[in-house]
Design goal:
about 475 residues, 8-stranded mixed beta sheet
Length: about 475
């Protein structure tokens, strides 16, 4: 384990869990990397004067407001934009919009003094609700009160084009001199007024510029859309089936956002000549495959984005293929570093935050080389659990009862064996469990839509290894 820190910054540590022993000719090295951040200071900062106002409406064209104008800026370590769905479906039932206003007000109350913030109303276009002049406000008692008063103007009407909401959030967040940039997005419906490839292009453009938590309220939204937004922007996704629960959820989201202390942290992997990275996955608190997000970082090194950090711990599963070797040989299979871009841009190398080593040792002792490390075994099962739930639910929707029963039965087995009680409870709302150990289940004839969507949305949530 290695630590690096600077005054006032979080302290990072890396712990490596693996069975480093391979049989003669063995090539695959697996390790669980636990990254922990602790001891950071508070986000926020003093305001600076903002420039003149800009027009309020934004039509979804990158970099342009209706009528032109360049957004202003404010200085703060953290900046957050709340995007609230105000499409016509938010009027069914009418209490949904009221709960959305209350939830946004609760989130605003949680914004810490000195943090830049804004509220955006999302329909088939994006409109700034507060402060409404092309810039972010600096949180203090007065601006929080003004923002909550401005929420009275939120009313349902129009369509849904989520990409325009995200583009305006990106523009606003980019105008702030902030290191932590975060969005919170609430939707109750499908992205019907925008082509899927348009939303994908927006997500690709926004990735790495800010993080975003996404929430679906009710049951008329698409799980893949909401989880896809959170995945692309390194945030969390969840369902709030009952709109009455929005205020508590928004408060928790904003509290977590206010706890972030350091942004743009990457997991850097260096591998020796002849070795290659098979995959890199975040496996706790959720499963997220980072393999395709690699950015080359010099000879035999690549960076994998992890987003913003507060006081927290996450686990990553690394699989490296190394050149085969004979008994008695050993090698460094990978070096893991936590890095952050330097404050002065490209002029200096990234700051190392922590480091860890993954080893490979070839042995003739089969008992040693075939033993699976408990952490690796646990998270291999957790990744399979997420996969079989998705496969089982897809099969259920397509009418393939046999495949759905087999996959969800395997999910029950895995959830129970790993102690993932929350997922086991969600599965029990979709299937009747006949034999836990054998994974024997029967599909329920009737399942509430909210229960289906909750299982799908939360299928990637994992539990830590019991130590």
């Amino acid at each position: 384990m290695a630590h690096f820190s600077t005054p006032g910054a979080p302290r990072f540590s890396v712990e490596v869990y693996q069975n480093e022993y391979l049989p003669e000719g063995g090539r695959e090295v697996n390790a669980i990397i636990t990254v922990t951040s602790s001891g950071g200071g508070a986000a926020g900062g003093p305001p600076i004067p903002a420039p003149a106002a800009a027009p309020e409406a934004y039509d979804g064209v990158p970099g342009a407001y209706d009528g032109g104008g360049v957004p202003g800026g404010a200085s703060a370590r953290a900046a957050v934009v709340i995007m609230v769905d105000c499409s016509g479906s938010m009027d069914y039932p009418p209490t949904k919009m009221r709960h959305a206003r209350e939830a946004t007000a609760a989130a605003i109350d949680t914004v810490r003094d000195g943090v830049s913030f804004s509220v955006v109303a999302g329909t088939h276009k994006a409109v700034e609700v507060f402060p409404g002049n092309g810039r972010l406000a600096i949180a203090d008692p007065l601006t929080r009160a003004q923002a909550k008063e401005a929420l009275r103007s939120l009313s349902p009407g129009g369509g849904t084009a989520i990409g325009t909401w995200l583009l305006l959030a990106d523009l606003l967040l980019g105008s702030a001199d902030a290191t932590i940039r975060h969005g919170i997005l609430l939707t109750d419906g499908r992205n019907e007024h925008e082509e899927p490839q348009r939303l994908r292009a927006v997500l690709d453009a926004c990735a790495g510029r800010f993080t975003c938590d996404a929430r679906g309220v009710g049951t008329d939204w698409e799980v893949e859309e909401v989880t896809g937004i959170a995945s692309a922007l390194l945030g969390t996704a969840d369902i709030v089936a009952d709109p009455a629960g929005l205020s508590a959820d928004f408060t928790r989201i904003m509290e977590a956002a206010m706890g972030k202390e350091i942004a743009d942290v990457s997991l850097r992997l260096w591998t020796p000549k002849g070795a290659e990275v098979a995959y890199v996955k975040q496996v706790a608190p959720t499963v997220e495959d980072l393999t395709a997000r690699r950015v080359e970082a010099g000879p035999r090194a690549g960076d994998y984005p992890t987003g913003s950090w507060g006081d927290e711990s996450r686990d990553y599963h690394l699989c490296v293929r190394v050149p085969a070797a004979e008994v008695g040989q050993e090698m460094l299979a990978a070096r893991i570093s936590l890095v952050q871009p330097p404050p002065d841009g490209a002029g200096s190398p990234p700051s190392p935050l922590a480091q860890g080593l993954v080893r490979a040792v070839w042995t003739a002792d089969l008992a040693v080389s075939t033993a699976m490390n408990p952490q690796v075994a646990h998270y291999t099962g957790q990744a399979e659990l997420a996969q079989v739930i998705q496969q089982g639910m897809n099969a259920r929707k397509s009418g393939d009862a046999e495949q759905a029963t087999a996959k969800l039965g395997r999910a029950v087995q895995l959830a129970t064996a790993s102690g993932n009680e929350d997922t086991a409870k969600l599965l029990a709302k979709v299937v009747d469990v006949l034999d836990v150990a054998a994974g024997t289940v029967r599909l329920k004839a009737k399942v509430a839509e909210a229960d289906e969507m909750t299982l799908e949305t939360r299928s990637t949530k994992t539990v830590r290894v019991k130590k």
